User: Which sequence fits this backbone?
């Protein structure tokens, strides 16, 4: 409709604005600065490609070797550190005296509970990062870092205490003897039960 539309106006040939002289000077400086590098890359690009490929292969081999080594370490059983007492001898002797006094009165359940509570206290004192306020006796006995003999002994003590608390069955002298011997192994593995004054 020529009464309301017009033919397109041809674009004017406007020259782009010229860059300021200071910007041209910077470009000339950068061109001179990087010209040797560009020339070097252009003439030696094939060699650079080979070097980059070799470095990439070395990096891939290093990563693969690191992963394989970690996998091997995780599958290789670690040598256990020498067992060390986790409780002082005098403390163990004092506790056994208190527990033996309860057992001498026929209070075998209370004596076993005393051993369990002190055993938990020993672990909390020696390795506090292993425990939290909600830790149960079974969870403590399954701590991976707990030495094997201590783990087994702690399990015996906890089992006797659970039996007296939840099975509503009073512990007998034989049950107490098992818990006492287990505590001896747990507290100081190198001490024989007889070296701790014997059971009462």
Assistant:
């Amino acid at each position: 409709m020529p009464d309301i539309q017009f033919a397109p106006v041809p674009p004017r040939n406007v020259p782009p604005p010229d860059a300021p002289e200071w910007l041209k000077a910077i470009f000339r400086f950068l061109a001179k600065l990087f010209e040797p590098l560009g020339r070097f890359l252009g003439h030696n690009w094939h060699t650079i490609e080979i070097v980059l490929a070799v470095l990439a292969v070395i990096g891939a081999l290093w990563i693969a070797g690191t992963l394989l080594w970690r996998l091997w370490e995780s599958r290789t059983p670690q040598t256990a550190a020498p067992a060390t007492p986790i409780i002082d001898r005098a403390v163990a002797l004092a506790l056994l005296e208190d527990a033996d006094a309860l057992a001498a009165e026929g209070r075998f359940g209370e004596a076993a509970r005393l051993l369990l509570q002190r055993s938990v206290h020993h672990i909390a004192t020696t390795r506090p990062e292993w425990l939290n306020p909600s830790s149960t006796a079974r969870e403590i006995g399954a701590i991976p870092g707990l030495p094997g003999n201590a783990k087994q002994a702690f399990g015996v003590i906890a089992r006797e205490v659970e039996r007296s608390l939840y099975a509503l069955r009073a512990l007998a002298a034989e049950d107490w003897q098992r818990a006492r011997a287990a505590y001896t192994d747990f507290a100081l593995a190198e001490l024989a039960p007889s070296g701790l004054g014997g059971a009462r």
Observations:
- Residues 21-75 form the longest helix (55 residues).
- The CA atoms of residues 65 and 128 lie 36 Å apart.
- Helices lie at 21-75, 89-104, 108-126, 137-141, 148-166, 173-187.
- The chain has two domains: 20-75, 89-196.
